Amino acid sequence: MEGSFTGPDEYQKYFSPKDYLDTYYSFEHGPSPETEMIKFSLQFLHKVFGPGGIRGETLIDVGSGPTIYQVLAACEAFSDITLSDFTDRNREELQKWLRKDAGAFDWTPVLKFACELEGNSHWQEKAEKLRATVKRVLKCDVNLGKPLAPVELPAADCVLTLLAMECACCSLAAYRAALCNLGSLLKPGGHLVTSITLQISSYMVGKHQFSCLYITKEEVERAILDAGFDIEQLLHSEQSYSATIAPNKGICFIVARKRSGP
Ligand code: SAH
To answer: What is the DSSP string of 34-75?
Structure first.
């Protein structure tokens, strides 16, 4: 089972940022399960990081892939954001957007939607704010005890990881260990904000199929508690992707807080 799970080598070789973005983050094809999923995530993130929500100085986003939607709300609440991913091409895609390269993905519809939620019409300013707040893009591997090695950052106020742990962890034991690895990046009392697709065993990026850890909501909750967090919010949505791309049974959004003591 673990032998057939697509691991880091497959991500490095076959995960195409362009195919991923075109499939899951394009608003061009009109309303679809994928656009609903982005909107739902942005609404959740707005509640988490918006007025009265979590704030602090440093936030580390783990398994960013080639996407920036996940930090649009957070850049109003944190002054120093780190993006990170395992693959060179995903990190390069992020840099392209940060540098405003001509070939960078166009996030305009997503920026506009995130701004609408904030009652702000200045989406270009938001893009600039995010560019100024992202201080570094690092390599990461959630399966390492120090996921950002060889870099070591001061413990952060918040760790964010959306839709990545189920791709990176080949077993429930690996997922449970990876959550402890993420915990090591956080200050005691710091927040873990995560989303995970439930009961899905693979998804498509272009013509390549990637494995997912088939996991239930109860297993996710147990793993987070056992990794030293208290769960502050858990939202289980029935949102699904197009069945042909990634047939899942909903998605789970969680806000958890690292316990200070044992
Ligand atoms: N967070 C983004 C991307 C999710 S796609 C989003 O919300 O859309 C899953 C990502 O996990 C890919 O970018 C892949 O490169 C990354 N990944 C795979 N294995 C990993 C590992 N061991 N450590 C960190 N990231 C990994």
So the answer is: HHHHHHHHHHHHHHHHSTTS---SEEEESS-TT--GGGTTGG
Q: Kindly report the protein residue whose alpha carbon is nearest to atom 25 of ligand 1.
A: 63
pLDDT tens digit sequence for 88-145: 999 999 999 999 999 999 999 999 999 999 998 899 999 999 999 999 999 999 999 9
Vertex 235, ends 229 and 240: CA angle to 5°?
125
Whether the pTM exceeds 0.70: the reply is yes
Determine whether the shortest distance from the Cβ of 141 to ligand 1 is under 6 A. Answer: yes
Q: How far is the CA of 223 from the centre of ligand 1 (A)?
A: 19
CB 160 within 8 A of CB 59: yes
Structure letter (DSSP) for residue 170: S
Residue recorded with tokens 């697509």: 6
